[in-house]
Amino acid sequence: MRFDTDKFYSGYRARFGKLTASQVDGLGELLSFIEADRKMQDVRHAAYLLATAGHETAHTFKPITERGGKGYFDKYNAGTRIGRRLGNTQPGDGYNFRGRGYVQITGRDNYEKFSTKDDDLLANPELALQPETAYAIAVAGMRTGAFTGKKLTDYISGKRCDYVNARRIINGTDKALSIADAARRYESILVSSVVDDDVVEAPVKAVPAAQSPTVPPQALDASPTTDAPPANEGEAAPETPAENGQAVVGGRPSDPIIKLPSSLSEAKELAEKARSYLPDGSDTTKRWATRSAAGAFLIAAWRWLTDPTHLIPILILIGIAALFIGGWLLSRYLTKKHARALEAAERARYQTQEFELQKLKLQIESQNAARLADPSQYNVVVDTGAGGPVAEKGQAS
């Protein structure tokens, strides 16, 4: 493939924003590699490569080194959990084999995997920063699945073009939507700037395919950057160290990557789309999708509520809600009032019974006192056990 660079840069500025001189140099070099790559026959592959390289290099479009002081990389040294996963076996391997390239490789195993006869990356890891070598590593990893086990043709081949899930060849689904959006823009730019379908013959370094892919740490839990270049020339992008061996450098978007929903139906569609991006067993991505869907719903709801044309329906809804709430509160009030009345009646009944018992008790005590004071007024019968009862004094005859 050959491209008209004037059309390419014009299309880039129209879709992403202005370019710095340094970015023009980086993009120009990448385009020359793509033109010289005889295996690059699908413009969609080139588009996704550019989107990935732009994202991973903070839109400098030049190979970068993972940021951080020497002590920062001690957690990647031999004997650590991450170091063992990266194949680091010697003291200092964490720093010596830190991330480098367009798509940064990290760890002794990956540097050995992408070494060639001409480029011994184990002996000289800095060779991974040479643009030609960095390009060879990037396309080899994407084509063969050497980064994560997933290949570019698994998602972009023939009539299938899944830019979103193509992110799995590099880093799961992290920033998948924004990179997919950038890839679609690059595809449009490349299609409009293609000169012909001939491939420019030029040497491009070959990198051996990995026999048993080792997943780089950035494929596990990295947090890369946004998808648009810095706004001003010479403006530095913010930096955030990555826990997984990949540099994290911030960029500035030139326009919204994802259109915010303007209705509840669009919010629902976005929520369903977000669920389709969930990788198996990824709690982090599930939380991201859940929060995205909730945020989309709240935004759509707010826009609907603040639309002046919805004033009457809103007032009706408020009125209905007020009736329900008022009825519920009245019901609670009457229920409590009835319960208090029942409680008062029961208390009065109990007090009446207590009064009657006390009255009866007083009557009995009064009779007993009168009997003791004048026994002659009462009949007393004594049973002798022999001749029957005998009337004692005071008994009526």
Keywords:
13 helices; elongated; mainly alpha; two-stranded antiparallel ribbon; 49% helix
Explained architecture:
The structure is a single chain. With 397 residues, the protein is mainly alpha-helical. 49% of the residues lie in helices and 6% in strands. It has 13 helices and ten strands. The strands form five sheets. Strands 1-6 form a two-stranded antiparallel sheet. Strands 2-3 form a two-stranded antiparallel sheet. The chain has a two-stranded antiparallel sheet with strand order 4-5. Helix 1 runs antiparallel to helix 9 (176-193), helix 3 packs across helix 9 and helix 11 (264-276) runs antiparallel to helix 12 (283-305). The chain starts with a strand and ends in a 6-residue tail after the last strand. Mean pLDDT is 78; it is low at 199-204, 209-258, 278-282 and 393-397.
Q: Percent range for helical residues?
A: 40-55%
* Largest sheet report: 2 strands, antiparallel
Query: In what range is the share of β-strand residues?
Result: 5-15%
Cα-based radius of gyration, to the nearest Å: 43 Å
Count of β-strands: 10
Q: What is the averaged pLDDT score?
A: 78
Spatial gap, N to C terminus: 145 Å
**Order of the strands making up the biggest sheet:** 1-6
Low-pLDDT runs: 199-204, 209-258, 278-282, 393-397
Overall, the morphology is elongated
Helices and strands: which structural class? mainly alpha
Strand-and-helix sequence, N→C? EHHHEHHEHHEEHHEHEEHHHEE
How many DSSP H or I helices? Answer: 13
Fold blueprint:
Layout: E1 2-3, H1 5-15, H2 21-36, H3 43-56, E2 64-65, H4 81-86, H5 93-96, E3 100-101, H6 108-113, H7 131-144, E4 156-157, E5 160-161, H8 168-171, H9 176-193, E6 194-196, H10 218-221, E7 239-240, E8 248-249, H11 264-276, H12 283-305, H13 311-373, E9 381-383, E10 389-391
Antiparallel strand pairs: 1-6, 2-3, 4-5, 7-8, 9-10
Helix pairs in contact: 1-9, 3-9, 11-12
